[in-house]
């Protein structure tokens, strides 16, 4: 959720499911095509994994930041944009939402720490499979195996720094929102 693009939040749960599920399904469907050379296999992977991943991520996003449901699309987008950029929204009405979203990002980041170990284990398996496929498999299998390994390595190397940067910017935005609330304490009342 930390690296989910801000535009995904603009809509409701259906848009969040489509915004995360369709790109994932396309990506994994492309892997299936490279490995098998079959458009049917790619379509099956897309049709099965897009809704599965999209619904799972949309539900997780909703649980992580339940306050998003109380905001209209424009306000939700403004809160997400400002928080992810580390900007001062300057709107006392939306300041609590900025603080809430920043806390949700931090919590999700903490919950995902164990994920690194899982990805490291999968990368190890992917390396073994890539070496095996290179020596005894077909060309498509070898290419797909090395691409999978590259994705896992990218996830291990690039993702943590990006998530840390987003969480740090969110912390700055939350601090600015707290200052806004201190300047306008009456505006914090419902």
TrEMBL record:
Transmembrane segments: 26-49, 114-132, 144-161
Keyword field: Membrane, Transmembrane, Transmembrane helix
Name of the featured protein: Uncharacterized protein
UniProt source species: Streptomyces adustus
């Amino acid at each position: 959720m930390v690296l989910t693009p801000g535009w995904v939040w603009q809509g409701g749960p259906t848009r969040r499911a489509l915004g995360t599920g369709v790109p994932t399904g396309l990506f994994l469907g492309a892997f299936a095509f490279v490995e098998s050379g079959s458009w049917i296999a790619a379509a099956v992977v897309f049709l099965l994994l897009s809704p599965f991943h999209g619904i799972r991520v949309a539900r997780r996003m909703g649980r992580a930041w339940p306050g998003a449901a109380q905001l209209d699309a424009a306000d939700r987008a403004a809160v997400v944009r400002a928080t992810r950029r580390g900007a001062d929204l300057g709107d006392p009405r939306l300041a609590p939402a900025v603080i809430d979203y920043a806390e949700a990002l931090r919590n999700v980041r903490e919950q995902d720490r164990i994920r690194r170990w899982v990805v490291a284990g999968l990368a190890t398996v992917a390396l073994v499979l890539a070496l095996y496929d290179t020596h005894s498999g077909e060309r498509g299998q070898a290419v797909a195996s090395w691409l999978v390994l590259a994705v896992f390595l990218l996830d291990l190397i690039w993702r943590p720094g990006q998530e840390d940067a987003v969480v740090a910017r969110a912390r700055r935005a939350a601090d600015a929102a707290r200052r806004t609330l201190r300047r306008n304490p009456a505006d914090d009342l419902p």
